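Figure S4 source data
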Amino acid sequence: MKQNSIFEAVSAIDPDPQVIAAAVEVLKAGGLLAFPTTGLYGLGADALNSAAVERIYRIKHRDSSKPILVLVKDATELGKIAAKVPEAAKRMMAAFWPGSLTIILQARSELPVVLTGGTGKIGIRVPKHPVARALVSALDGLLTGTSANLSGKEGCSSAADLDPGLVNQLDLVLDAGPLKGGFGSTVVDAAQDPPLVLREGAVSKERLASVL
C-alpha cells in the first residue's frame, strides 16, 4: 500500500543527510511530504511551486483565502519574502527564532498569490526541530509549514496518527517518532502597528509583551 511505502524513518536528533537529500528531491519535483516540527507534524511543499501549494489546499480542504506559512533557515532569507521587516518583528525574531513563533509580514509581490491567499501577507517561521531545519537548509528555499491535518481537525504529534486519506495523497512521510504535541506556533501579525496576536500558542502573550 502507498501509505506504508512512503514512510521513511528519520532521527529526530541527527537526521541522515541522505534521507534529507531524498526528501528535498521530492520537494523540488513538486511533491508533498509530512515532516516533524517541534510539537506537531507539518505538511511540506516547495512554497514557490504554485501547483504544489495548490495541492496542499486541495488535500487539506483548506479555504483558499487562508495563507500558508513558510519555513526558512534563518532571518537572512526574509529579503526573498517580505516587503519590509518592522523593528517590532526584528525584536521578536531575535527573541524567539528558531522556535514556535510565526510572524506575519507584508509579502513581496513576486510571491505566488496562492501562497498568500490573496491577502498580500505571509507568515514566516524559523523552525527549531532538527529535521525541519535540515530540510529548509538543504532546500535552500521556502518550505510550507502548515499542519499535516485536514482543515478544522487537530494536528498530529505522531506520524502513525496522520489521517489515512491525507497520507494517501502524499509522496513521502518523514517519521521521527512521537513529538511533544501541545500547542502549535503562536501567530503574530507584525504587518500592522502595534503587532496583533492572532493565535496564542507555544509562545505566550506575556513573553511577547516582555519583548515588545
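Figure S5 source data
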Amino acid sequence: MLPDRVGALNRDDNWWVVKWHDPEQWRHGASAYRFALHYDRRGRPDGCVSFRVKNKWEESGSAAEVIIDEIDANNAAARAALWRFVLDLDLVRTFSVDSAPDEPLRYLVSDLRSVKADVQDGTYARLVDVPRALAARRYLSELDVIIRVEDALLSGNTGSIRLEGGTDGAEVTRSRRRPDLIMDVRELSAIYLGGTPLQALARAGLVTERTKGAVAAAAAAFGWSQPPFCPDFF
C-alpha cells in the first residue's frame, strides 16, 4: 500500500511507536483508536482502517461521529469493503477523515454530493541534486529530453541535462546540446512527484518549450498512475 504511494515516507518501528501513542487528553472526547483489517481469499491482510468514535447525543437522537485516521488497501475491492464497514457502524451521523489521497468514496456512494471534500496543501518537494533525483525515479512512458534547469540558490543544479527514462528507470547526463525545455528548479520540483501537470505550468509561462511536442512528451512521462500523497506530517 504505502510503498506504492508516491510521496509516502518510510515507517520504521520507532515511527509506529509514536504513531499509536494515544493519551486520553489528545482524543478531545473521542474513543481510543480502533482498527479493522480486511483479508483476501487466502487469509492475507490486504487493507486496514484506523478510526475513533466520538459519541454525542442531541434531541433528535445520536449525533455520533466516526473520525477516520487512515484507510488504505492494495486493491479496490478491499478499500470498498473497509468503507462499507465504517459506514455501517450503528448510530453514527457523520464520518470524517482529515487527509486522504485520491479518495474514490464519492464514486462508491449512491449520491456523490453527500461526500464533501476540501482541498488542502499537502506534500512539497525541492530538488537539491537534480541529476540524482531524476535518475532515482521511474517514468510512465519512454522519454528522451534535454532540460535546461535554472537554480538561483544551488548553482550546481543550473545547466542542461539529458534525461533518458522509462518504466524501468532513468539515466541522466550533462549536455551541451540545445535544450528542449527550459524551467526553474521550482517547476521541475513541482512535477517531480507527478502531482502537478507540466502543461499547466507551460500555459502559465513558467516553462519554455524549445522543441515542439516536448511539453506533451515530458508531461506524459512525469505523470503517474496515482497522485502523490504523504499521510504523515513532517
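DSSP finds seven helices and eleven strands in the chain. The CA atoms of residues 9 and 232 lie 7 Å apart.
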